[in-house]
Design a protein that fits this description.
The complex is a heterodimer of chains A (225) and B (253). With 225 residues, chain A is of the alpha/beta class. Chain A is 41% helix and 20% strand. In chain A, a hairpin with a 6-residue loop joins β1 and β2. Chain A starts with a strand and ends with a strand. By secondary structure, chain B is an all-alpha fold. Chain B has nine helices and no strands. The chains are: A alpha/beta (225), B mainly alpha (253). Chains A and B meet through α1, α2 and α3 of A and α2, α4 and α5 of B.
Chain lengths: 225, 253
Amino acid sequence: MPEIIASMDQTSTESFRHASMSLEAGALGIVGTSGIDQGRDFVDTLLGLAPPDSGEVRLFGQPVYEWPESRKLALLARVGHAGDGLISNLKVWENLALPALYHQTNTPEEVEARLIEAISQLPNKDEWMQKRLPALPDALSSYGVRMASLLRSAALRPRLLVAEFLLDDLEGEAVGRLVDMLTWMRRKDPALAVLLLHLGPSNAGHSTLHSLRPDWSLQLEAPTP
Amino acid sequence: MRTSHTHVLGSISSFFRLTAGILVHVITHLDALRRRTIMSVTYKQICFTGIQALLPASFAAVAIGFIMETQMRSLLGSGIELNVKMLKLVVLREFAPLFTSFIVLGRSGAAIASELAAMKVQGEIRNLYLMGIDPGEYLLVPRVVGCAVAVPVLTFYFQAIVAGMGPALASVFVEIDLGPYYQALFASFTLQELLISAAKNVCFGLVIAAAACSSGIYVPPSRIWIPQAAELAVMRGFLLLLATDALFALLTL
């Protein structure tokens, strides 16, 4: 029986009501939300940053929001976060290595090797190595920031990847490259569970993915919060 | 009127509570320095607060040393004992630590507050949390420890320049017998005085960093608060530094 990575049972907050979902290891979940703030509330609730008003939330089988801060953060070390979340005063290279080095699960050499392997999947890898990595995140385009946040997760090798609005408002080629990177990450680790947040109904997000890469089958569809 | 007084008192009490909370958090999380990423941020903070402030501190120290030495000579005459006493008690013990701290407050305090406020406004503190990184460890510990290390070292450097260069420069314009003057000055220091001075400067560093962190990290999440956070850090830090200095003056009476 596959391991349940994250689950919500009849969970309500100010932003959404009676959400239920269950994400297994290796599964892809697409959550359609009506707004960015609502989506962030959903992620905050799922990852234990904000307690739900009612219902039950479990991460890796644990009621994470009830836990003390230190244990909660240790659990979050197994979660990758992709979207627009780079730290503005760190260079892109430092951003990519930050969570993996902070959690000390691997040596700096291993983290560097993983990053180079992930970057080598990109069609413009030389440009990334020479121009983008030494720059500050301000120098990156919206696509660049999202790709960098995916590369950061690739260095961490998480069990769960939460992708907040990763593909929204981007052109087709940029979306294709991000999906290629996601596909590569799942090929490297078939047990990686991905939760993709998408503006609009969930089926629209699934259609986008399916039209780009037909091998991406929807294994779970969470109710729209 | 009463409501306004209550509001001001509430803000002051809230600031003291948050600043003290930051200091307690940092002291209880010093083991975070074992992490390479946090040590790396701490080195950067020491470099910015200490090493990059050497040039302005040197200029200020030379100018203050020269001004104080010439003024003291015109006021007190050429007696070595009185001039040494004045230089040690007024300039080196009180003025130099405060002046160095004001330089650090204006540079690093304002920078820390606006940097943290910007991170909060841009949602980066939430992003750190989502990556399993404790924002208290990653953002506060390096800044507070960095300032607590850099301020005493920078103050010692400032004092050395004031005591060394001030009389030397002033001797070009007024008559000073430099050899006996330096001998009398260095002979007047005791170990206890040096330890108290070091403790005071560490406290100044802690006060600057804690005031800056609390002014930056607790701002409402709106862009207009970024410059205001820097202004608040400087004003609050200035008052807290004076209060800490007064406390040390009372304790060492």
